Amino acid sequence: MSDAARRPRSDFDTSVPNVARMNDYFLGGKDNFAADREAAEKVLAIAPEVRDMAREANAFMGRAVRFLVGEGVTQFVVLDSGLPTRNNVHQVARSLLPEARVVYAADDPVVLSHARALLATDDRTAVVEGHVLNPRDLLADPELRRLIDLDRPVAVVIRSALQFIPDEDDPFKSVAVLRDAVAAGSYFVIGHVVFDIRPEVAGPLVDVYRRVLGRTEDAARTSAEVLRFFDGLELVEPGLVYVRHWRPDNPLSTHGREKTWSMGGVARKAEG
């Protein structure tokens, strides 16, 4: 495991950029600081489409949650939840299923503080400290177990955490542990940036995020490499695709040249 993965979390420092707050800036939010905006602008200078990618990834998650509710899923575990935005998982799920239960997991103190304040009076939603690289600790959390019955199907939503975790930390194993721990009929929703159609920006962007995260490893992946996260699961149609192609509300929105390079997929754990 890398040094960054071992490093304990502490009170946040507003002078140090943070991935969650950078994403908040990309989405037009106000929960960010000067250091976050400076780092985000460096990203946008390399790839201006990143702002659209953040919005499209958020929209994909909303469509995926609506699909899962339609498939009978009533409970959700959201890893790397990010700062509260519009169309959070619990909001989308509850718009269709008022009794839906949702647990958000994050290891960033800013995210934890904001999410807990927002959801303090919601007894069907919880916010726990956890990370995809520590799946057993996450699933053993008493607050998670209060709301989530792991003997019944659950949707595990991993918004973007995996794209920042290098192979040295073996995120594939962590996802496999989660897969093996949940009941048959459960689903996984995974989003991940790839560089297949923009290989020239991979190096510069990775350098920016390595400095933000305090890491030396390269976590960039191709679509073929991202497919490994779905090993042992059955991808639902249309498979792992660029997010705006995943069951779009308006098929016309997928026409024209692909301008963003976030991919997403939804997969089911089969019976038996």
From TrEMBL:
GO BP: methylation
Pfam families: Methyltransf_19
Any one GO MF annotation of this record: methyltransferase activity
Superkingdom of origin: Bacteria
Record key words, sorted: Methyltransferase, Transferase
UniProt-listed SUPFAM superfamilies: S-adenosyl-L-methionine-dependent methyltransferases
InterPro entries reported for this sequence: SAM-dependent_MTases_sf, SAM_dep_MeTrfase_SAV2177_type
The protein, known as: SAM-dependent methyltransferase
